[in-house]
Structures are given as C-alpha cells and as structure tokens.
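User: quick one
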Amino acid sequence: MDEEPERTKRWEGGYERTWEVLKEDESGSLKATVEEILFQSKRKRVTESHGQVRLGMMRHLHLVVDCSRSMEDQDLKPNRLTASLKLIETFVEEYFDQNPISQLGIITTKNKRAEKLTDLAGNPKKHIVALKKAVDTVCLGEPSLYNSLHLAIQTLKHMPGHTSREILVILSSLTTCDPANICELIKTLKSLKVRVSVIGLSAEVRVCTVLTRETGGSYHVILDESHFKELLMLHVKPPPASSSSECSLIRMGFPQHIIASLTDQEANAAISTSSGADLSLGGYFCPQCHAKYTELPVECKVCGLTLVSAPHLARSFHHLFPLQAFTESPTEQLQKDRFCQACQGELKDKSIFSCPSCCSVFCVECDLFIHDSLHCCPCCIHNQSNP
Amino acid sequence: MASEEEINLLVIVVDVNPIWWGQQAQRATELTLSKCLDAVMVLGNSHMAMSRTNKLSVIASHFEDSHFLYPGKSWRMGDSCGDDASSSGDGKYELLAVANNLIAEEIRKVMSKTEVRGNSTDTLLAGTLAKALCYINRVSKEFEVGQEIKSRILVIKAAEDCARQYMNFMNVIFAAQKQNILIDACVLDSDSGLLQQACDITGGLYLKIPQKVALAQYLLWVFLPDSEQRSQLVLPPPAHVDYRAACFCHRNLIEIGYVCSVCLSIFCNFSPICTTCETAFKIQLPQMVKPKKKKLKQPT
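Assistant: Done. Structure below.
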C-alpha cells in the first residue's frame, strides 16, 4: 500500500479562538452576528454541482450497520443504535426518492459475524420494516469489517457492469475482528470496482482510511447528530462514475396501469413485492409475460425484465442537468423594485441572488428552495418559449 | 372540522392564453374570459368564506410570464388608493370585495399591456407552477412553527400542452409531491397528459369539464372541498393515466424500450451509439463454445 503524505491532524494545529467570531455592536447586542451565522449556514447547503461528469445513475448500495457493544453508548440519544437506525430510515427514503431505479441492501455485523438484514431490493418499504424491527436487537461483541465486506461482495460481484457498486459502512467501534488479512480483501474490492465509504461514529481508524482511499470512497467521522445526518445525505446523490464502468443499453418495460372495473373479471392474483401474493383488481402488467404487479419499479420474477414508469426516470434528470448556482450580490445595488421574482416577497436580506442566464432576482429562501427541491429557475422556463 | 390552527392556502392558476380565448370569443361560445374569471372569483370568495383562516392566491399564466393577480404587491405595501374604490355598498364582506376588484383590475392590466408575440396556442404552465411553489414556500415560512399550513394548487387549463416543458414540468411535480402540495386540474378543452400525471403523482383531482358554461358549478362542487373532506364525498373517478414513455427517436409511446445507462434516454431499437450522450455501448456477443475434443479409443 503506497504511503500518502498524511494531512495534519486537528490537534497539531494551533488553538482556534472560536469565541472571537462573536462580535458585539454598539448597543451590546449579538443580533447581527447571529443573523450572519444563520445566513452562512443556509448558504452552505447549496453545494457546488459536479458539472459535466458522468454519474452512476443505477446504483447498488450495501449498507453495513455496526451492531457491536459500542453501539450501546449513549452519546447519541437515546443510544447510538436507535439514533443511527432512525437516521438510516430517513436516508433510505431519500435514497429511493432521488434514485428510483437503484437498489439497496442492509447488512448488520456483531459478535464477529455478519448477517444480511435485507436483500438487495428496489422497494423502500421492506427496508423500513426491517429497520424498525432491528431497533430491538441486542448489541454485543465485536464487529467484523472483513466478514461484512465479504458478504456484501458475494452479491455485488454478480451485478452488471454498467451499475455502480457501493458499500457504505457505519462503524462505531474502534476495533474489528477479522478472520483473514484485510489487505487482500481491499485488493479484491479494487479489482471488482466496488467503492467503499465509511462513516465513523467514534474516531478515525487507520484501516478505514486506507480502505476508503484505495477504493475511491469517502471517510468521515461525525461530530454530533446533525452532522451525522448531513454526512448520510451526502451519499444520496449519485456519485461520479468511475472511468472503467461500462455503459450499455438496458432493456426495460413500461407497463400500463390497468384499472379493472368491478363488473369486468374476477380479481387476479398479483405478485406483490412486499409480502407474498396479493389479490387486486387492477395493476401493472409486464409487457413481455403479462405477470401482474401492484407497484413499480420492480424486476419481473417471471421473465426478468426491469419494469419502471416514465416518471421514475424523470426523477433522475435533475442530476444530469444540474442547475447553476446563482450569483450573490448586495441588495443595495439593485435599482429596480425590491421584489423577489419567484415568490413576490420583499427583498429584506442583505444579499440577493440572480440567475446567470436570465438575470432575474431571487431572495435567499427562494434560492435555497430552487436549488434543493425545484431544480429549475422559474424565469428561465418562461424564456424557453422564444425559439 | 378543521382545528383553529390549520390554515388552508388555495392557489388558483388560470390559463389566460389570449389566442385561445380570442378563438373562443370568435366562435361565440358562452364561455368568455370574463365569465371564466367570474367563476374563479366565486370559487375564491367561497374558499375564503369557508373559514376565517383560509388564504387565497390567483396567478394568471400568460405566454411568456405569469402575473400574480391576487394578492398584489401594491396591496401589501399598504397602498390605500385601492381601498376607496373597493367599499361596495351592498354590505359584502370587505375582504371579498377587495379581492374581486383587485383581480379584475390586474387582469385588465395584464391583458392590455402584454405583447402578443408569435401565434403559439400553448401556455407555459411549468413556470407558473414553479412560481406558485416558491410563493407557497415563502408563505409557509412566514408563520410560526406551531401553525400547520396546508396548500393546494388548482390549475384551470384552456390551451394545449407544450411538449418542450416536459422536464421542467416533471421537476415541478416532484417538488410539489415532496412538499405535500396537491395539484388539481380543471381542463376546459383538450385532455392534457402532463396534468393527468401531475394529479396522479401528487394525489389531486383531474376533471375535463363536459359543459363549459357550467364552469362555476364544477368548480364549487369538485374543487372547493379540501383533501380531508374529499374522502367523504363521491367525486369523479380518477382518469386512466398513460405512463408509457415516449422514445427519443420517433416520439412513439413504447412498452418495451432500451434505456441508456449514462443519460437515461429511451430508444425503441437497439443502436450501438446513444444519440444524446454519444457513448458507444458494449454489445453482448454470444459466448464461444469450444468444441469438446473427443478422445479416440485406442484399438487394442
């Protein structure tokens, strides 16, 4: 393993005088400083987009959750395990919202072994049910990084080459109990093009640093619960695809939703993805083999065709055409009426944001909303009409 | 019954494409733009009369821009010249009278001042819906943490869909779904596939009006109740939504297609290069089967 020059650790730098950030004004109030800090924290959320980089849109992600004795620690309330599982539930929902054609699987590790909590699947409900039940598990023993990675590889290596293979490890313990040399496993991971990222709950562990560096993932250690949430949400966006991933045309089916009326025919059995078979009147029929399903996206169990609906693909479009960041400028420079062109509110903040292409002016709330949820500038859409 | 704390915000988006409305007037049908706006005002007044805490907003969607008819900027800035003209002598609740007058004044301004360029008959709903969502976002932030605000958008559509705004429209629909905002649609003329998808995804109601002259009746019967009350009523059944994708090469609706893994464009036939992102695809070749060598039996 080649040695990289290590970054200086935080304790090696000088003292940070964090109290000097707060400055009082003439009347002794801290209001201006507090507003400034709030404003900066709001702006931090709008991250830079990758630009013209190929992204891995179809993702197969394995989530490894540490259930060892250190998860009973109460530094996250009520204990680390409950807090982590709650945040992972939010993560699962966001993940399937932003990547509807991807799959997720969960693995837990404790007592020197690893076992699968849920298989790789594209349906969020199964995972959430399993996570809710997992809150009662007893945390004991040591985690095993080797065993959990090995278990994840067993399924990931069979996945087609055009998908991105990822593993996200949530590790709270500072030790791991491995049956074999983990460096060999890191070499295998590299050759299989699996990207491993780690979120540490206690402290930085060298083996994780090496693991993530070699496979191209990221390693972070949490400061508190809100930081934990931020770090988890970083993994929701599709990562840049590695240069060696293949691109291919995937055959997919777009079934119609048929609503059969009560007088038509008897209720046919539908193959349900969550629990056995369901009886339902209407559903989605696979265009190749006419098997019936209650919800999409799903992989047809009879003929193997991936079934999706057009809005599922449309959900991922905003990753491919990201919205440019708006330019910030002080409010005083604005000559015209001080109104935000999206929400018609008055511009009361100290800076305004303007879209680089249509030069319309927005307030800070609209800027956040547009970049987080809307992904399109309301005024540019209007200008699109001009051919 | 709704609790005291709940606030319902109704945003009405009216399609005022002048070419379509002009054609309507020329054909001398009963529904003209002024009658349509009368019906909208009736709905707005009824909504505000249902509860003291209900709020209303009306946006007109024109060719290249959308204008907020109510609440207007001058009204909020405390401009008092509107109030003198608005006090009507018939004892109407003042808020409703002010709203009606403001809407009438603004739409007159919009229709007379906006230039008509080109002769396209489609309206850009996506931009108007985006502005409506930003407005709802701002209003919900203005209230304190304890107060719940429930919002919905009603779209009154006249002209046809514009295919160019598909992607922006889908972005707006997903943003509305995330914020739990219902999008209802009241369609006057031709069916709109985009609005059908919007209503299906966000959980709203889609209705194509059989008789245009009875617009006010349909608005009050179908679109006035909010989402909780709708479960108690027998409303028009949901429309069958066609979720099949259109292929990028011919724009036909296909049931089985090929999707590029890089840019997610949909094709009906296999081709070695993706036309959108120009990636060359790996073609799966059939595997070579080596013929087994048979061992010759040695004659003994």
